[in-house]
Every structure is written in C-alpha cells, then in structure tokens.
Amino acid sequence: MAAKRASCMLFRAAVQQQQKWAANSPSRNAGSSRSLIFQQQTSSFRNESFNSQRFFSSDSGTGKSYKIVGVLYKGREYAADNPKFLGCVENALGLREWLESLGHQYIVTDDKDGPDCELEKHINDMDILITTPFHPAYLTAERINKAKNLKLALTAGVGSDHINLPAAGSAGITVAEVTGSNITSVAEDELMRILILVRNFLPAWEQISNGEWDIAAAASRSSDLRDKVVATVGAGRIGRELLKRLKPFDCKQLLYWDRLSIGEENERETGATQETDLEALLAKSDIVALNIPLTEKTRKMFDKTLLSKFKKGAYLINNARGALVDEVAVKEACESGQLGGYSGDVWNQQPPSADHPWRHMPRHAMTPHLSGTTIDAQLRYSAGVKEMLDQFFKGEPFPEANVIVKGGRTAAQYQ
Ligand code: NAD
C-alpha cells in the first residue's frame, strides 16, 4: 500500500516536472523566432502513401484494451536502489499500475535483438510499442510488416532514427517522441565532454588511478576553453542550450551551422554567429559538437574527407548519433592526430561490440549512451510518454512538436 502511494506520488511529481518542462520548452515559447521556425518545421510534413486503417485517430478513444510493449534497458540491482530510476525494465517508466488499472496489457523487456527475442514474440499482435534511443529496439521495415496491429510507436526520449520512418508512415503507424525532454541533460553533458577533452582530464585521472604522478605528460596537452572557437553543427534545441552554456566561458567565437537560422534574438542570447559554409566552420573551429538528427542525408556525413577539413588537432563531440560519423575515419583521425580527441555517448550499434575500435582508440572519452537518461530526464520523458498515451486513449492529438510521423507524413527535421 505504502509502495503504491509512493509510486503515485512519484508519478505526480514527474507529471508536474513534465508540465514545467513543457512550459519552458523552446518549441512552445510562443513569440520567439525559433519557436516560429519549429512550428514551420513540424507543420511542413512530407506526404507519403500510407495505410489509413492504422492511422491512430481512427482506433483510439474507444476505451478498448491495448497490448502495449515497452523495450527498456535492465535496471537490475540499481532499479530498487532508486525509485526515481524509471527508465529501466523493472520500473517500466512508472506506467504499469496506471496502464493495468485501465485494463491494458503492458509487457516490458530488454530482449530486443534476433529472431527469438522477447520483442519478436509480441510483434504480430502489439498495438503500441514504446522504445528508447538508449537501448534501441530497431523497428525495421521487416518488423513493421509483421506488426499488423501496431498503431503507435512512442520514443521515450528524443531521436527516432531506430525506427524506419518511411516504412512506419506507409503502414499508417504514428511515431512520436518526447521532444525537448532531455535537452538540458544532453547540453550539460556536452559541455562536460568539451572540458574533459580540452583540459586533458582523463589521461591525468588515469595517472593518479595507476599510482603515477607526471604533470608534464598531462599539462603538455591541457588548454583553457577561453579564447577558443567552438561550433555546433545543428542549432536546434540541444545545440542552442549548449551555446547558452558556453557563453560565460569567454570563447573567442561561438559558431553554428544549421539549415535554419536561429534568428537575431537567439543569436544575441547565445552570442553565436551562423556560418553557412560547413567546411569554413570546420577549418576555424577548435571544438565542434554535433547536434543534428540522423537521417539519410546526415548518415556518415563526417567521413574521411570532411574530417580532413577540420583544423588539425580539433576536438569532436558527438552526443547526437554514432552513425553521423564514419566509425573507421574517426578512429584513424584520432590515431593520426587530425582529431585531438573524440567524445560522445552514441554508437552506430547499441550496445557496441566488445572490440569496437572506439573503446581503444587514442584520445577518446567515450561512455555508454547516458547523457539523455539522467534521473531528471527519465522523470520528464516518462511523464511525456504517459501524457501521450493518455491523449491516445482519449483520441486527443499529441503536442505538435512531438509528432514525428503521422498520417503517412514525416516531420521536417527527419527529412
Ligand atoms: P532539434 O530537432 O531541436 O534540432 C535539430 C537541428 O538540426 C534543427 O535545428 C535542424 O534544422 C537541424 N538539421 C536537421 N537536419 C539537418 C541537415 N540535414 N542539415 C543541417 N541542419 C539540419 O533536435 P534536438 O532536440 O536538438 O536533438 C538533436 C539530436 O540529438 C536528436 O535528433 C538526437 O539524435 C540527439 N539526442 C541525443 C541524446 C542522447 O542522449 N545522446 C538525447 C537527445 C537527443
């Protein structure tokens, strides 16, 4: 009973946080030029042929019982340690009690890969799939073809590139994510990675852990962030949050490259300037952070040729998606010194193999995919998923900025 009460209180707190986040979300900040750009982005959908029978508004709001499958990472012993740790299998985004009280079936698993995995057992008859970028269940065209009942694919977090969006569109599946839910978490993490690389922190930490003391070895590659040129490739929600956080560091120049301008007001607020020529931006930047989505246009965009345009010894930060870069070209650039270091939490296959080259290449500061799944982010994206499920059950529309595919059309940022 006490556990039940605690879980309800926790969820209420999460919803309040979600409401607070929603009120502060840049996309909902009416009046700013950025919000207008995002409204244009999300309202200019691409038309595709789709199976209208599965389009969710025709099947929701009926009070029927749904089979909902969630794919999350396992929390193991850590799940019980922290009841706010909602993003794991055991704590199931805090949704189990609520969904079951409404008569829905809710299956949560981490077993997502291969023909005999738990997810495959439910593909044929699930109505709703909840996935997360941190432990991505790849919703391929083949799986979509088998998932004849699937109406809704919700991403608990931001980034739905693990879903074949054109195939989802053609099948009449709605795809939505909790836009903006972890932008602070990722931007803070990127700032940390910039400092870790620029200050040469990890090799210095390793010395101490290994019982060594060699100031020269560490100091010879350690710099200030002040007076450096820092750029973000992509100045959407996360890119702009990063620029805001960089402003007090008195960098020489803050630059951004994006197909859209962030507008004069945001440029004033962040102190950043747009550079429309990507190669020119790379040539003058000491530090570059990637903050664009993974699409067919951006996949492997940072290949050997583009990496050769960087200023020699520049640092590259990538918390956006691993597949934005050519895996081998990054490793070789770190080995040759073309890159002074590479840091990120995203990999082109997650989890990566035990012998993935990025685990052992020089000057890396790689981690598992965690920047967008802090406890605070989990509370926000869990509440966002709950809000959208509730809207789906009631036949109400989702917040426009959350919609990635609907009615066979794909949101502009994924085109
Ligand atoms: P966003 O939609 O607010 O911003 C994306 C920006 O990229 C937009 O300004 C858009 O104009 C620009 N863009 C898109 N395609 C482009 C192209 N081809 N050329 C130039 N510009 C292009 O998204 P966001 O919230 O800032 O998130 C960005 C990405 O970060 C997500 O797509 C996701 O992949 C990643 N992400 C990672 C984590 C994590 O935990 N590591 C968490 C959240 C998001």
TrEMBL record:
Gene Ontology CC annotation, any one: mitochondrion
CDD domains xrefs: FDH
Residues binding substrate, per UniProt: V158, N182
Enzyme class: oxidoreductase
Catalytic activity reported: formate + NAD(+) = CO2 + NADH
Keyword Metal-binding: no
Subcellular location, record wording: Mitochondrion
GO molecular function, one term: formate dehydrogenase (NAD+) activity
Binding annotation for NAD(+): R237, I238, D258, P293, L294, T295, E296, K297, N319, D345, H369, L370, S371, G372
Keywords for the protein's UniProt record, in alphabetical order: Mitochondrion, NAD, Oxidoreductase
Residues marked Important for catalytic activity (site): R321, H369
PROSITE patterns the UniProt entry points to: D_2_HYDROXYACID_DH_1 (PS00065), D_2_HYDROXYACID_DH_2 (PS00670), D_2_HYDROXYACID_DH_3 (PS00671)
Subunit architecture: Homodimer.
Matching HAMAP family: Formate_dehydrogenase
NCBIfam families: PRK07574.1
Protein name stated in the entry: Formate dehydrogenase, mitochondrial
